[in-house]
Amino acid sequence: MAGVLGLRDVTVRRGTTTILDGVTWDVADSERWVVLGPNGAGKTTLLQIAAGRMHPTSGTAEVLGERLGAVDVFELRPRIGVASAALADRISPSEKVVDVVLTAAYGMTGRWRERYEALDHERARTLLDVFGVGRFADRAFGTLSEGERKRVQIARALMTDPELLLLDEPAAGLDLGGREELVAALTELALDRRSPVLVLVTHHVEEVPAGFTHGLLLRDGRVEAAGTLADVLAEEPLSRTFGLDLEVERRGDRWAARSRR
Ligand SMILES: Nc1ncnc2c1ncn2[C@@H]1O[C@H](COP(=O)(O)OP(=O)(O)OP(=O)(O)O)[C@@H](O)[C@H]1O
């Protein structure tokens, strides 16, 4: 598939607020994108368009070759995996971890009278193992640490074998060890050619895993820069995006940024 995402001049307005302003963005098969920008830049809104969960006020958006507005979003959504704090909030703390993953196959949170095939059970447990949380499969979701919950959410997002995986701030709230473990898991995912196309939203260049290929910088709903990571995670575009004079360092496959002042 050539075009996984194709946004043309996408604008989202709510009342008098313009949340996204003329966003044009192309994501192709096998690419791994990072979306970076300060608080309120419009990152989550952009991800909602990519997830087929919001329509542009103007402009056009194609997701997995389907034009939003002309496709049945209920057919489109199972092809897209999403992990976000908003979705995690809808998971009952008493829900068994394996069920959190399993219910994704039915596009819903909460286990409620469905019948699951043995293969689905096996896949859910395998995904939990892949993300290092297999030993918690039979525990209640609410008893896990923040980092463990994040990994369960990614396993859940992968349950439907999606073509596109959207991760909204997966490292938010993690301590240093938790962040590094998550970054390592995402690096493995990014480097695996069988993985879906990945889009990761973050505030911090330190959270960009190795294996990611492209970056989009957003500020005030506008694209400040988009392209290969090496081009985009440079001092000039990053400083412009965050409104700070930034010093950016690349060490091996990871980045770090700090203010010069
Ligand atoms: N329904 C709405 N009505 C008015 N403004 C909204 C609405 N939804 C979002 N916004 C505003 O749009 C802006 C962008 O929000 P969004 O959540 O997309 O940003 P973000 O880059 O993900 O921010 P953060 O990094 O803080 O999570 C914010 O200023 C937010 O307050």
UniProtKB/TrEMBL annotation:
The regions listed as transmembrane in this protein's record are none
Keyword terms: ATP-binding, Nucleotide-binding
The record ties this protein, via SUPFAM superfamilies, to: P-loop containing nucleoside triphosphate hydrolases
Q: Does the keyword Ion transport apply?
A: no
Q: Highest taxon of the source?
A: Bacteria
| Start and end residues of each ABC transporter domain | 5-245
- GO molecular function annotations of the record: ATP binding; ATP hydrolysis activity
Gene3D superfamilies according to UniProt: P-loop containing nucleotide triphosphate hydrolases (3.40.50.300)
The record's listing under InterPro entries reads:
AAA+_ATPase, ABC_transporter-like_ATP-bd, P-loop_NTPase
What Pfam families does the record tag this protein with?
A: ABC_tran (PF00005)
- Know the name of this protein? Iron ABC transporter ATP-binding protein
Protein species of origin: Cellulomonas carbonis T26
Its taxonomic placement starts with: Bacteria, Bacillati, Actinomycetota, Actinomycetes, Micrococcales
